[in-house]
Structure formats: C-alpha cells, structure tokens
Amino acid sequence: MTGSESRDQSTELAARVRAASAAAEALEIVGGASKRFLGRAAGGTPLAVGAHTGIVSYEPTELVITARGGTPLAELRQTLAEHEQMLAFEPPAFGPAATIGGTVACGLSGPRRPWAGALRDFVLGVKILNGRGEILHFGGQVMKNVAGYDLSRLMAGAMGTLGVLLEVSLKVLPRPSTEWSLGFELDPAAAVARVNAWSGRPLPLSGACHDGTRLRIRLSGTANGVATAARRLGGERLDTDAFWDELREQRLPFFAGERPLWRLSLPPAAEPAALDGAELCDWGGAQRWLRSDTDAAKIRAAAARLGGQATLFRHGDRHTSVYHPLPPALMVIHQRLKAALDPNGILNPGRLYPEL
Predict the structure, then answer these.
(1) pLDDT of 154-166, one tens digit each?
(2) Domains of the chain
(3) First to last CA, the chain
(4) Which of 41, 129, 113, 46 has its CA nearest to residue 282?
(5) Were both Cys, which of 30, 80, 183, 205 would link to 85 (CB 3.0–4.6 Å)?
(6) What percent of the chain has pLDDT above 90?
C-alpha cells in the first residue's frame, strides 16, 4: 500500500549534499520547520527535504509502515487511523507541517511513552544520506533484524547531525478500543507516589500527569478492562480526553509565554526539584516541565542531584549549551560517530552540542 502522493528526491538531495561536502558548506536540514526551536540555534544553508514525500509501503497485518522523511506526520496518522492503528509513542507535532523525518530526528515521545515505549523503540530501519552524500541503509522492517550495530535507532534524537533521513520504517500498534481519563486531587509528591505504586500493578495506564493541583491518568484498552481498572482506582471520571492532545502539543496554559521552558528527565520516584518557577509533571514523574528564569547551572545541578538531566526546551539563550552536558568519555563516542558519518561536519553542525 502506498500514499496518494509520492515524490522521491533521493538523487537530487544526494547531489546537493555531495556538493556541500566538497565545498565544506554547512547545511541546515529543514522539513516542515515545526521543531526548529529545538536544540541550539541552527546554522548553515537550508537543505529543504519537505518535498521528499510518500508512504513507500504499509502492511497493516504486519504492523509496519515505511515513509519518506518529508511525509507529513498528519498523513501517517490518518493512514494508520483508517486501519485502527497508531504510532504508539504518540509523538508531538508542534504544528501541521510536521514531517516523519523531523519527528524521528527530534526523538520526542508523548504521554504514552512510559507504558508503550519511546520513539527509538519503534524504529525498525532507516535509509539516510551521510555527510558524503552516500545513501546508506540500516535495519529493516522486522523486529528480529538485529545483525550488526543498530545504527537506525541512533538517528532518533540525533537532530540530523548524523544523516539526512530519506526513509523510516516504524512498528505500529492497534489503537485501543476504549480510553478513559480519571482525576484525583493530590499534591505533586503524593501524585508521583501514587502513580509509581500503580505502575507496578497490571493496570492499562497510558498517561499520568500532575498539573500542579490535580493528577490526571488515562486508561487505554478494552472496554471491560478499562472499566474494571477505573472501578479499582476510583477518582473522578473526566468528560473529555482532549487534555492529552493539549499536553502533548504544549497548548496548555502552563506552556504559554516566553519564560524559559526546561525539560527535566528524572527517575519516576524523584522528589520535586525545589526550584523557583512553575512545574508540570508528566510520564508519572519521569518528565518534569519547568518554567523558570533560574540560572542554567543551578537547574542542571538540581537535576543531576536527583539522578537525571535538564534540557532547555524552549526560549532562553540557544547559542549556549542547550542539552545537558555529556561526560567526556561519552562525548568522545559521539564525536567518533559524527566523524564516521559526517567527516566534514556539514550536517546541522552544533545543533546538539558545540563539539558536534
């Protein structure tokens, strides 16, 4: 099964990258530009990949879809919905122009992530352009394809620094037949403790967020399974599930304004960070959003003390270190990967770290 519109620009893109490599010309990979705010400030000549589109193959019975990097995320979602299937990692779009290539490159997952898995867990294979303009294939279209190094999953979250995503093969899952949201009036610490206790039980959890005053959870599964779990947990049945879309796309009032937005990735049971500013807790405590003008070093030190890391997600100074600093040994590994796949350093240079 293929999409209604399909344009393969692999040859043209490869030629452009080869020319840039020969001239040591930095390139900024641009699809739909919906996530251009992520990472350090972009630089280089734009390399437009948004016209490289089309669903290459989709076999609903095999739970696998393959699409070119510029294919709109909305098109994939619609195609999957027609067969009662979904991208289980629930990626944010941050705008109607989002592409599947940009989605994978940014490596972001939505509220379902702690229970369904992260984006990288669903990447089966990729076709990329390396920094020399060579077309490379990694992985395949089945979960058991594990021969050699799994470089395909390294593309998730690499922000285009390791290659231009030409095609992506993803595992998909059936959509749950029933979803309910429940509300509980709990303070943040009690909410985290409650969700951690529930996560160790056979419950159909698919979302858990504390907005500062109320814990919201989402249950997904069969009608009988969801109803049974809801009776066991109690709480208030909420009228709408739109909250989870608003949370995923950062359209809640919490995310409004220009104050720096920090993403703290912490152990689920970690105590509150005790930093100045407003905090919203997602992923049952593993992802904390912080609106704060506090010094970056202080925020990162607090995250490290709790066993995690902090990333400047929106606003603030994007010309400094945006992502949590890597240990020296790990940075060396990143630099070697970058040198192997992009020896002239032309693909999104500095977007992750100044050293890359």
Answers:
(1) 999 999 999 999 9
(2) 10-174+336-341 (3.30.465.10), 179-314 (no CATH)
(3) 39
(4) 113
(5) 80
(6) 89
